[in-house]
Design goal:
- The structure is a homodimer.
- Helices cover 45% and strands 13% of the residues of chain A.
- The first copy, chain A, is an alpha+beta fold.
- Chain A has a single domain (17-100), classed as Winged helix-like DNA-binding domain superfamily/Winged helix DNA-binding domain (Arc Repressor Mutant, subunit A, Orthogonal Bundle).
- In chain A, strands 1-3-2 form a three-stranded antiparallel β-sheet.
- The structure holds a DNA duplex.
- Chains A, B: This is ArsR family transcriptional regulator.
- Chains A, B: One of its GO terms (molecular function) is DNA-binding transcription factor activity.
- Chains A, B: InterPro entries: ArsR-like_HTH, ArsR_HTH, HTH_ArsR_DNA-bd_dom, HTH_MetalResp_TranReg, WH-like_DNA-bd_sf, WH_DNA-bd_sf.
- Chains A, B: Residues 14-111 form the HTH arsR-type domain.
Chain lengths: 119, 119
DNA sequence: TAGCTACTTCGATGAACCTCTAAGCAGTGG
DNA sequence: CCACTGCTTAGAGGTTCATCGAAGTAGCTA
């Protein structure tokens, strides 16, 4: 899937393979814990956060957090790097932008396209 | 959740309740079949499509398509209306736009915010 | 009324998923 | 070398989910 994968969702029918790839990406963010992980990492000072900054925000065990981070990393949404004792995660903006492009703002009525009503 | 629910994902940490609501919305689109259903409905002439226009595009039974349409409708992504024999579905743009706002384009480096280093 | 088509609801099955505990790996420091 | 902390991997248990066949509802037509 290229960086600029697909037209906005309502522009033209998605191919089966594009839909599969986008669905996999969306499944990675379709979880409240992972959504909050992303937002915490992305808004953290320096653009990155170590796992120790994350576990405190959840009533979950460390292995569970690690599991969610792995899913985000596998999906290409974040990248992790070990520096000494700690592992730091950072958002990969290109992947997030792909989702933004998919749901790019629609015109509200979406009916002008048809020549139905000039008014 | 208001129309303009949340700041972009990487701007500030999501609240637990916002994350839960957004995750529910994302789970509705995190499926290749539903993604294609949305794109077919949205790009169909007239901005709407009847179920009979949809089933032909999938190797799935009618109950399964109906199941996916119900999930999209429950999530507020589409709206259905019966006219005579057929049922027509239409995208609700406001809900789609909510997702677009969540993944609004990020600046690529995202490090200028810190005053860490101009160079 | 009866019959036909379009679509939805119901109930069941098998796969995928979130969470945990236990155990393993990496790095630091006595 | 041993102990300790930070994080990940492995395996298990309970829940959710996609899909199907069968049955139900809604509308048209004769």
């Amino acid at each position: 899937m290229s960086l600029e994968c697909c037209a906005p969702i309502a522009r033209e029918p998605l191919s089966e393979s594009d839909a599969a790839e986008l669905a996999a990406l969306l499944k990675a963010v379709a979880d409240p814990v992972r959504l909050r992980l992303l937002s915490i990492i992305g808004s953290h000072a320096g653009g990155e956060a170590c796992v120790c900054d994350l576990t405190g925000s959840f009533d979950l065990t460390a292995p569970t957090i690690s599991h969610h981070l792995k899913i985000l990393r596998t999906a290409g949404l974040i990248d992790g790097e070990r520096r000494g004792t700690w592992v730091y995660y950072r958002i990969i903006p290109e992947t997030v932008n792909k989702l933004g492009a998919l749901f790019a703002p629609m015109a509200e009525p979406a009916r002008a396209d048809l020549g139905l009503a000039p008014a």
